Amino acid sequence: MGETSFRNRRAASIENGSIRVTVLAEGGHVAEILDKASGVNPLWLPPWPSIEPSAYSVSAHPEYGNDAESKLLSGIMGHNLCLDLFGPPAEEEAAAGMTVHGEASVAPYRISTSGDSLTASAEFPVARLKFQRTLRLEGRRVLFTESVENLSAADHPVAWTQHVTLGPPFIRRGETQFRAPVKRSYSLGEGCEVAARPLHTFPDSESSGGFVTHLMDPARDRAFFLAHSPSANLVFGYSWNRADFPWLGVWEENHSRKQAPWNGRTTTWGMEFGASPLPETRRAMIQRNGLFGERGYRWIPARSTVRVEYSAFVAASRSIPERPEELEIGVPA
Known about the structure:
Low-confidence stretches: none
Number of helices: 3
Radius of gyration: 18 Å
Shape: globular
Number of strands: 23
Distance between the termini: 31 Å
Order of helices and strands: EEEEHEHEEEEEEEEEEEEEEHEEEE
Strand content: 35-45%
Helix content: under 10%
């Protein structure tokens, strides 16, 4: 399909007989992975109007709030990239213009398509990083390849998180489930370790929310999450190399945030797999160093490039399987 418009945003799409994938030109967000048979896009589309991040200003757009997250929220959708920050900027960084989750989620991307593949690339001048992501369709899978190049002569410690957020109609309170091979879990709100739950249902009650990070099972080379919507008879998920992204943060927003632009009307379930366990400032990430004996960030060596691969998938299913291999999508073991 190539260049298109998606919810009044510049975008590009690729598709096959089973799925359509759309990526936004600003922010590089994967806005949809649409299952054509059901017409359902499991990814979150905010209930507020979306604008290009480059068009955002505090004075002209108070409807998005007035803090370091507002520019991000003005254009956020679906799956956004957190690099080289996962969480809020420090006070001094925010004063200098840094946004929540760093440059990657608000930067302009150069996008090209060829057949069933799409490539999005960008440079992040503050972090001095060059990024490229290629998506290729294979049946009901989307194969992702990412590279991060350090343009500086100094080693660079980075947060690198895939901020995948699910939303209605795929998410329904008291119904949608997720499964992941978790080993240990830590609640950001409670500030302590909590019982690990490999299977969890989205709460039925309103005004709930929170963030729990999960250490993926070290005995498995591949990590994953599966989310199942009984009403849509769909399973949606991602699979990745655990060595690349040992953490899965699960963020729940169930009408609890009353400030703009949330306004107590948003239902989302974030599945945030990455190199860091918690959304926090750069200083806190480095001082923490890790959690449960597992590292909490990764290094991009000077003048070097690091690459990762992972996949997303969507398939019809009346129940949530134990693992992706049970779905007929060809996910690697």
